[in-house]
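Sample pair:
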Amino acid sequence: MTGPWPVGAATGVGSMPGTDIDDAVQLVFGELPDLPYLPELPERGVGSDMLGRAASVLAELHVDLQPSGWRLLGAGAGAGGDERRAADLLRRDLDALEIGALDYAGHLKLQMTGPWTLAAGVELPRGGAALLDAGATRDVAEALTEGLLGHVAEVQRRVPGARMIVQLDEPSLPAVLAGHIPTPSGFSTVPAVEESTAAERLGGVFDAVAATGAVVGVHCCATRAPLGLLRQAGAGFLSFDGRVDVDLDAVGEAVEAGIFLVVGVVPGAGGRGAGGGGAGSGGGGPETGILSDPARTVEPARRLWRRLGFVPERLGEVVAVSPTCGLAGASPAYARAALSGLRKASRLLVDEPS
């Protein structure tokens, strides 16, 4: 089986702690040589968050930042200061990537907020989630697709040896489907989006990105992520939290359909806050034990595979491992230990799959 990444690979979800992009790129490429990614650093502030980054690439749509969050601007408006700052931060990240990945030839993952989470998170010019307006929701998806294609092309220009993997982040998709996105008053919610509509919109993004030669999939760390819908929409891989219950039937059908998996096996946060016992913190919390034992680290992926009933030898071919979610809330020491621990543990997917 030829997969989208090397067998026994480990990767990250996207975000990292800290504010130094050069250090973050060096860390990612050093610890995750089989499947590095362009890290995101939300601690840098405005424009570094997942919504701001995605909004900054929207083609022919502009945004600004209000106390309530990112807001679409009306027709004819140009880019404001907040949007320009977000775009500048992304350019700096690409500069760092170009230097850090000099002469790199291999798989490289990019992350971008997906169309449904973006429509749920940015506001209409008059207020309220863009999700309230079907036309605005469509416009956001189309503008995101065009902007994402430009982003992928720019990364390929800067890192010509990269084989591109694109991850759409859709943490809000379950709430969109369930009708749990609140209206501005907080006393009501936006009507639920039908699964067929959600799948069709995602499928349009998948098809456009896949036409560039990239492999495109979705990360959703929410409990009971809609994996069946994502499979039907055409995702090339599914990334989810392997430490919570998932729809085994949906996962099994995805694997049988040739879809690959990124299974989150270690917590995304550790080493910060009172009593935090993350690696490097001096504490003895649960994260430390997980990362110190590769077999324990990778056990959620092994357990999932056993429950699916597939032969152990396929585990390393189909599954890569990652944190359960981004590492922005972790301490720098824990983030480093998490990536290092994942790299060591991922080899067991091939060497000791059962």
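Residues 274-284 have pLDDT under 50 and may be disordered.
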